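B., you asked whether I could sanity-check this one before it goes into the benchmark set. Here's the sequence:
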Amino acid sequence: MSRGGRVERELRPEIRAILVRKWARLPAKEIAKHLNAIPGARRERALRDWSAWAHDGQGAPPGDWRVWLIRAGRGFGKTRAGAEWAVERARGPGACVALVGHTLADARRVMVEGPSGVLAVARAGGDRPKWSVTSGSVTFPGGGTMQVYSAEAPEALRGPQHSAAWCDELGKWRGVGGIAAWDNLLMGLRVVPEGGDDPRVVVTTTPRPTMLVRRLVGMADCVQTTGATGANAHLPRSFVAAMEAQYGGTRLGRQELDGELLCDTPGALWTRDLIERARGPESGTGPVPEMTRVVVGVDPPAGGTNPGADPDTGDACGIVAAGVDRAGTAWVLEDASVRGASPEGWARAAAACAARWNADRVVAEVNQGGRMVESVLKAADPGLAVTSVRATLAKGRRAEPVSVFYEQGRVRHAGVFRELEDELCGMVAGGDYAGPGRSPDRADALVWALSELLLGRRGAARVRVV
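And here's what the prediction gave me:
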């Protein structure tokens, strides 16, 4: 083994363990001080060693894949990962790599000329590629080339052949044109450079639920890397904290920061946009209006009489507090649901929730436990006013009138209730459920509470004769 190879192997764990985990959070001057303490040749190798600086989500996955989809939050390091992979593929003779952006301007500004683009990455690695703005091409000293394309001009991808491709912000590629650009690109991935691998493509994007993104997720030969903004230790902690404080748990935050692919279920009674409108600009950021009445809805778990229910996979006991203000607007105040608790445990949680909000009543479904439900609630708080309700319709059908109140703007969310909102978006018109878990326990508790507040004590619509 050469001395240089030995030094590089010895240095790599040092860089990963000390620089990435510790130095990344230091001020720039402190990082420079530590780097300057490393002898020149070793320092240069350390700076060029991408595998030492990259976090786990930025390395290409193993295995026989055709498409590598990096769908992650902003600031995760998607662009750097895509550029590093593309540059590595372009270094060999005969390599021809396609760089496809949303527009030509985006491709040039981000993928080629940006601080994490291919020019910066290649130069840091010792290459001196030539960039022609006029032709939109990057030529490497070893003979490999890159060519810039726009997803808005899919016909430009119809003829050329490539050995690899990097597609950026696929979630922004528009409609039929974006799909055509993707199809034309794949059909041209048929060049195998001398000594190179079979053609592959890396896709870097925040996961907007477009038809094209959903199509990639379902491909058998597509592997995915997911991650949140906070996974990048090189970002300022103040920035990550501020973003999480402002957007954490919202649809925008889950998509743009957590990298989640949030797709609305066909026929769902609630959509993500509907819930975001219900949250409103004041929800979670200001005081909740004074409530004229508060109730707590309870949906006991199907295994309500079984104290040995699995805390991880068993059904939850849905416990949701809701109130109505002086203007007649209903507010979802708290999701106090518990999972894996005994009947006495979830009854105490419901009683505590009622006490926190000074609720005048607990509305509890008794289909699963009969008189036992009211008994355990009374045992938890003898002064608790309990209304027992029995479901005669499927959960989705019971929820339909309540979803109408959301459409009318009569319900607000006083904060972010992530698990509850996921269940709401899985309730389908006609009675089906297509959300997380076996049963929408939290959503059902919300339906009972809002039905009590807005439809009358027994859930029957009040008819007003004019």
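One thing to flag: The first strand starts at residue 67 and ends at 72. Otherwise nothing jumped out at me.
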